[in-house]
Specification:
Elements (H helix, E strand, L loop, with lengths): L2 E4 L3 E5 L6 E5 L2 E4 L4 E4 L3 H18 L6 E4 L4 E4 L3 E2 L2 E8 L3 H6 L6 E11 L8 E2 L1 H6 L5 H24 L2 E12 L5 E4 L7 E5 L9 H4 L5 H11 L5
Helix pairs in contact: 1-6
Bound molecules: thymidine-5'-phosphate.
Thymidine-5'-phosphate binds next to strand 9, helix 2, strand 12 and strand 14.
Length: 234
């Protein structure tokens, strides 16, 4: 079936049904907007298994998304949407870029959670945006922006509960939204340890892509352990 789009970690295909797309997760890992790039056998499978189960957990907890079903170890079907070019980041704890850029102490808690919008535009290196930037760029209306932020806070609450049941703490995450042909906004893309920071509740050990970004451990072993812990929430 026809390849619609190939990204850094996924391929998106059409199916016979115009209301269904097929996503194939690739055995590739990148960091720093592609600055670091590796082939990693088994990564696509783990991301697909984890992302599918997270979308299922969210669905069972009242948060809908583009996810339809997992159809193989490395593939899932989703509803077609036009991705809104925003990365919506929610932070419960300071880590990563906010520590480097603004000097917040690593590990400091944000209550209520902090929501940020970034422009999903590789050529510009995904810069952070103010609300006015979003309006002037015509990316979303004021109402849509509010809806995105509200939806992100709901996703955050559900993911915090899920990770807690797994003995982990949700530090921060990035999500993306899409619009269907009727203009409805739907949670889309992927949620996995590639797109979240997750720390062990007791030891603060990393369960996310930081092990690859920082070269501190095996990504496959880390994601395998995370997937095993998901048994607690199935
Ligand atoms: P940051 O600290 O680098 O801004 O990242 C915040 C969260 O967003 C972290 O969980 C990683 C995730 N993220 C992505 O999934 N994709 C990206 O391109 C970026 C910059 C961050």
């Amino acid at each position: 079936m026809m390849l619609l789009y190939e990204g850094k970690a996924k391929r998106v295909f059409k199916t016979e049904d115009p209301e269904v797309l097929r996503i194939e997760y690739k055995d590739e890992v990148t960091a720093g907007n592609g600055a670091k790039h590796d082939f990693m056998e088994g990564k696509g499978r783990l991301n697909n298994l984890i992302s599918s189960d997270i979308f299922k957990y969210l669905r069972n907890n009242g948060v809908d998304s583009h996810f339809i079903e997992r159809i193989s170890e490395t593939e899932q079907t989703v509803k077609p949407v036009h991705i809104i070019p925003l990365e919506v980041v929610v932070r419960n704890v300071a880590a990563g870029s906010i520590v480097k850029r603004l000097g917040f102490e690593n590990g400091r808690e944000f209550t209520p959670p902090l929501v940020e919008l970034y422009y999903k535009e590789d050529a510009l290196n995904d810069p952070i945006l103010t609300d006015d930037h979003v309006l002037r760029l015509g990316i979303a209306t004021e109402e849509e922006m509010e809806a995105l932020k509200e939806a992100a806070i709901k996703v955050n609450a559900a993911l915090i509960r899920m990770m807690n049941l797994m003995g982990m703490k949700l530090v921060d995450f990035k999500i993306e939204f899409g619009k269907d042909n009727k203009g409805n906004i739907l949670l889309a893309d992927e949620i996995s340890p590639d797109t979240c920071r997750i720390w062990d509740l007791e030891t603060n050990e990393n369960f996310d892509k930081d092990v690859y970004r920082n070269g501190t451990g095996s990504l496959i072993d880390t994601y395998t352990k995370f997937y095993e812990k998901m048994e607690a929430v199935k």
